[in-house]
Design a protein that fits this description.
Strand content of chain A: under 5%
Shape of chain C: globular
Mean pLDDT of chain C: 89
Strand content of chain C: 15-25%
Largest sheet of chain A: 2 strands, antiparallel
Largest interface: A-C, 31 and 43 residues
Oligomer: heterotrimer
Distance between the termini of chain C: 59 Å
Mean pLDDT of chain A: 84
Number of strands of chain C: 9
Radius of gyration of chain A: 23 Å
Radius of gyration of chain C: 21 Å
Largest sheet of chain C: 6 strands, mixed
Shape of chain A: flat
Distance between the termini of chain A: 45 Å
Strand order of the largest sheet of chain C: 5-6-7-3-8-9
């Protein structure tokens, strides 16, 4: 089951965040993310961080999945932090040992950048944890549909997202199964250096890819047989209704982002 | 080679909300040289069970013994060589550019000489009736052909025990019967075979002993006649016919295989077999 | 009435092929060659034969996934090659692989897929989806994800998806091949109910699924080897052998014992008992 439980997967609970229109959530996340890149003060990050933590609490999603989300990023965060701390020589020296110098400027920037990454990942995780994949795809389709006038295939992109979401757990299970079948034939995935291990993945990746193409063919046949012919004349089963609370949520997000940037 | 499971429990994703107890304390022995049929529906734990035979899966509780020794103390790679496991839909794991190379994968992992590898590839492909496919791409073969190549790939390791998990699923009747007769030939050559299936009629044709799994527990184990006649409502068609007749006509006895059943019925009808 | 008038009436409800021929690009032999048959509305027709014999190709020609090289195909007067969208309102296909027929991340969204494609109004969609899910016995499964379902459940979801659209003709392409005994029973029970008011073409290797069929077509090497009734097929050892068909255990025993056709173990036991008493070997 190791491959199947993905990062930032939807956690089905009832919460004010879950109930929001996905379009509002996507836009809000985008605003937060973009805003974050303009925040450059400690106070600003503190504000952004507090808001994020409040949102996590409001989402009623337990802490564990969120921590799981952050685990892969820890490495990058640590690297970024260390890079700034060790190499940025700005401001008064806090600590010196041989030619290792830690300046206040480096420490400050390191912390800010680390905070930015953490908040960014958490915000993205909030989006996927509180929004059902289907709703997310529908939301994206709606948001992108004005681009249809510019020949952008909004419907097709949304359909691809939905199908990808549908098959991620299935492919994960298949990968698990293939890797055990190859292990039964003596394949070793755990030993050797990086290159050795990468090569050991070939007997998993090739069958998985070939299998995925075959699935795609069969799925296309099934879709066509059920009358699929692109977005023309199609009515969506799920309805997205933009309510007052969605507008309020968006407004609050703009304000929070604005405040954080200005601080 | 004798393998024994002692009170084996297996829980998937333990400690999470998705935890599933697939095996709830299974004790079972696999005797050298026998064909053991493992039957049960989906979710009964059959596939989980057989993956413990070569420790592809480790028990959450209980032990696996190989010739009396705890399997954990046995060399893992050697155990995987001696107990070959063919998964369900094994053709999904074919990956090499040619059939020969794919079948050569396992013997090469064993560090055998090139000469020996080639010999084994040829032998196993011939055994499976697939030698003529040697230079073809595995992806261009039919379902039945792919399956034969996949089985050859496991046999090329030279296992003492071969585990087949639903080997006939999705095959047409012709390919099915070929596979059943393969099992017979493997047994004749001294191999132990564990045959997992939900198809009772098939298992009836080849098994020396049968183990019925239900909900992660062993419901019954023993010679096919004992197991099937104890509950004819869940038995192969041959047994159900004989059982339906048995009351009025005890001379029927307890046939299990097709040919036996045919000749018994023929005699009962008064026609000489 | 003259033949041509009969044919015109039949056109409106039946399915037929005339000299249907198709070759896959680059193939040495045609996958289907000169196949001709007619299926009247409401009939349940089985299609059997060895793998590679053209059965799956036939299904795809009937619903327009493939276009014939020569010959005619008509379903209710429509040609699937030129009017595939209209044909697909009338024809629903259940494929072999339970996984690869499910397109959406949730059961109810998948069942709605066909209706979405037809542009059905939303309120009506909800109603039809609800009914379809209930009619295959999966009420309560609406928010389940496909990868958590068993094979039998997945095929039933696919069936619900077809039913929501409401086709008159069902094409079943080995729908139980990848299922275990329980799953097979689940799916076949539903199919049997649905077949009552519809025309069905059922491709399979399991001859026991066709005991109640009106007719059986045997396809071998792309040609129609036989167009007969199940009873005649099951009792024709030559025909069975030539086309690599294997009877299920009970009918096979009956045939080899020289007894009339039997479906169930109980029937066979009764027939054997009768034969025994009749031969006067042992008084009861």
């Amino acid at each position: 089951m190791t491959f199947a439980r993905g990062v930032g997967q939807f956690y089905p609970v009832e919460s004010p965040l879950h109930a929001l229109d996905p379009r509002a959530k996507v836009v809000a996340t985008a605003v937060l993310v973009v805003g974050l890149f303009f925040v450059d003060s400690a106070a600003g990050f503190l504000a952004a961080g507090t808001v994020t933590v409040a949102l996590v609490a409001a989402s009623r999603v337990p802490l564990r999945p969120f921590l799981g989300l952050l685990r892969p990023v820890v490495f990058i965060v640590a690297l970024t932090f260390l890079f700034q701390v060790l190499f940025l020589r700005e401001g008064p020296t806090i600590f010196a040992w041989g030619f290792l110098q830690v300046h206040e400027g480096g420490l400050r920037l390191g912390l800010l950048l680390a905070a930015r990454i953490l908040i960014l990942v958490t915000a993205a995780g909030l989006l996927t944890a509180t929004t059902a994949p289907v709703a997310l795809a529908d939301g994206m389709e709606d948001l992108l549909s004005p681009l249809k006038r510019l020949r952008f295939p909004a419907h097709e992109v949304a359909m691809m997202m939905t199908i990808a979401l549908r098959f991620i757990p299935t492919l994960g299970e298949e990968a698990e199964k293939i890797s055990r079948a190859q292990a039964a034939r003596g394949a070793d995935f755990d030993s050797g250096g990086l290159i050795r291990r990468a090569r050991a993945l070939v007997p998993i990746l090739i069958p998985l890819t070939v299998g995925a193409f075959r699935r795609a063919d069969e799925l296309a046949e099934a879709m066509e047989s059920r009358g699929y012919r692109g977005g023309v004349g199609r009515v969506r089963y799920r309805e997205l209704r933009f309510r007052a609370r969605d507008a309020v949520a968006l407004l609050l997000t703009f304000l929070a982002a604005g405040a954080a940037v200005l601080l | 080679m004798r393998i024994e499971l002692e009170g084996v429990r297996h829980v998937y994703s333990p400690g999470t909300p998705f935890a599933v107890e697939a095996l709830k304390g299974v004790s079972l022995g696999v005797e050298a040289g026998e064909v053991l049929g493992v039957i049960g529906g989906t979710g009964s734990g059959k596939s989980t069970l057989v993956q413990h035979l070569n420790l592809l899966l480790a028990p959450t509780a209980g032990r696996v013994l190989v010739d009396g020794e705890d399997a954990r103390s046995v060399d893992r790679a050697d155990l995987r060589r001696r107990v070959g496991l063919v998964f369900q839909s094994p053709e999904q794991a074919l990956f090499a550019p040619t059939v020969e190379e794919d079948v050569a994968f396992a013997p090469q992992r064993l560090g055998l000489e090139e000469e020996e590898v080639r010999r084994r590839v040829r032998e196993t492909l011939e055994l499976l009736g697939a030698w003529h496919l040697a230079t073809r791409s595995p992806f261009a073969l039919s379902g039945g052909e792919k399956r034969r190549v996949a089985i050859a790939g496991v046999l090329a390791m030279g296992p003492e025990v071969l585990v087949l998990d639903e080997p006939t699923a999705g095959l047409d009747p012709h390919a099915r019967s070929e596979l059943i007769s393969l099992v017979g030939r493997l047994k004749a050559s001294g191999m132990t075979v564990v045959f997992v299936s939900h198809d009772l009629d098939e298992v009836a044709e080849v098994a020396d002993r049968v183990c019925v799994l239900e909900g992660g527990e062993v419901r019954a184990v023993g010679p096919p006649a004992d197991v099937f006649y104890a509950d004819p409502s869940m038995a192969p068609e041959t047994v159900r016919v004989a059982a339906a007749l048995g009351g009025a006509c005890p001379a029927v006895g307890r046939p299990v295989r097709y040919r036996e059943t045919l000749s018994v019925l023929g005699r009962v009808m008064g026609a000489a077999p | 009435m003259s033949g041509s008038v009969l044919r015109t009436l039949a056109d409106l409800t039946s399915t037929f092929c005339e000299h249907l021929t198709y070759s896959y690009p680059g193939a040495a032999e045609p996958a289907l060659s000169g196949v001709t048959f007619e299926i009247r509305a409401g009939e349940y027709v089985g299609v059997v034969g060895p793998n590679g014999g053209g059965k799956s190709t036939l299904v795809r020609l009937l619903n327009g996934l493939l276009a014939a090289d020569s010959g005619r195909v008509r379903l209710a007067g429509l040609d699937p090659a030129t009017e595939p969208f209209e044909v697909r309102r009338l024809v629903g296909v259940l494929f072999q692989n339970p996984d690869n027929g499910l397109v959406a991340p949730f059961v109810e969204d998948d069942v709605a897929f066909g209706l979405e494609n037809l542009g059905v109004e939303r309120a009506e969609m909800r109603e039809r989806v609800r009914e379809a899910i209930a009619s295959v016995g999966l009420a309560g499964y609406e928010r389940r994800e496909p990868h958590t379902l068993s094979g039998g459940e997945k095929q039933r979801v696919a069936l619900a998806g077809l039913l929501a659209v409401g086709p008159e003709v069902l094409l079943l392409d080995e729908p139980t091949a990848m299922l275990d005994a329980a799953g097979r029973r689940e799916v076949l029970d539903r199919v049997r109910e649905l077949a009552r008011s519809r025309t069905v073409l059922h491709v399979t290797h399991h001859l026991e699924e066709l005991f109640d069929a009106d007719r059986v077509l045997v396809l071998n090497g792309g040609r129609l080897a036989a167009d007969t009734t199940p009873g005649e097929l099951f009792s024709d050892a030559e025909l069975l052998r030539e086309n690599r068909l294997v009877l299920p255990t009970v009918p096979r025993l009956a045939a080899e014992l020289g007894l009339p056709f039997c479906r169930t173990p109980e029937e066979l036991a009764a027939a054997v008992g009768k034969a025994r008493d009749g031969s006067g070997v042992e008084a009861r």
